[in-house]
Design brief:
By secondary structure, this protein is mostly beta strands. Helix content is 0%, strand content 52%. 29% of the residues are buried. Strands 7, 8, 9, 10 and 11 form a five-stranded antiparallel sheet that branches. The protein contains no helices and 14 strands.
Length: 155
């Protein structure tokens, strides 16, 4: 699930009617690879994006005028295992665990138009950061190297 909150007088308050399901199965918290990877809002605040690792989805909820989310998300299936994302203006830079990064666009109704993927040189990139004209991606330590590695791409 995703749940919205408001901040009033420095305190968080659950937004009444502000919880939406992601359609994940099971009764307890999902295993790491079956859980959502990242949740975030578009820079204009009109959409909430949720990426799913093993399930290979990008859910986009429309944020309505009362700050509640649309009843159900627009789901974009992404065979490339979407993981982390960051925004560069209105562009969505998406990194995935399958060794690629792609620049995409979130459309008004929540659909996502994905650009062509570019190999990132990582086995399982899981984070992305933007700085100037560059996007930096990294992955956690793997079983053999025990170190963090990363790549940089010019946007």
């Amino acid at each position: 699930n995703v749940t919205g909150f408001t901040i009033n007088a420095g305190r968080l308050h659950r937004l009444r009617g502000g919880t939406r399901t992601l359609g994940l199965t099971g009764t307890g918290p999902p295993a790491f690879l079956a859980s959502p990877a990242e949740v975030g809002c578009t820079p204009d605040g009109r959409h909430l994006i949720v990426t799913g690792k093993t399930n290979s989805f990008i859910d986009t909820f429309v944020v309505k005028g009362d700050d509640r989310l649309s009843a159900s998300p627009v789901q974009t299936t992404d065979a490339s295992v979407p993981f982390a994302f960051a925004f560069s203006g209105t562009q969505l830079d998406l990194v995935n665990a399958a060794g690629n990064i792609a620049t995409s666009r979130v459309n008004a109704h929540g659909t996502i138009t994905q650009g062509p993927p570019v190999a990132d040189g990582q086995a399982a990139a899981c984070c992305i950061a933007l700085a100037g004209d560059y996007a930096y991606g990294g992955q956690a330590a793997d079983a053999t190297s025990r170190r963090t590695s990363g790549s940089a791409w010019r946007r």
